[in-house]
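Exercise: predict the fold of this chain.
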Amino acid sequence: MNPALNIQEASLESLDGNGVLLQSGFWGAHKERFRQIPHPFRFSLSAETVTMEGSILVLERPFLRRNSLAYVPHGPVLE
């Protein structure tokens, strides 16, 4: 069986309550105030003997006119 990865966009609020400040909706909203763009996602990964589900906050930081850098602060959070 090939691993199956499912990724869906989520709301910032859906990331709250996971116990990791840097992967929370609060942190994404806070970073928006500093011109960073939050991209919240929910994901699931299924392989032969294991299934993982979780959330991830990707932050995009624009720089040098048309460029940007995307990063994941302290994550993802697995359930």
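Check your answer against the key: The first helix runs from residue 25 to 32.
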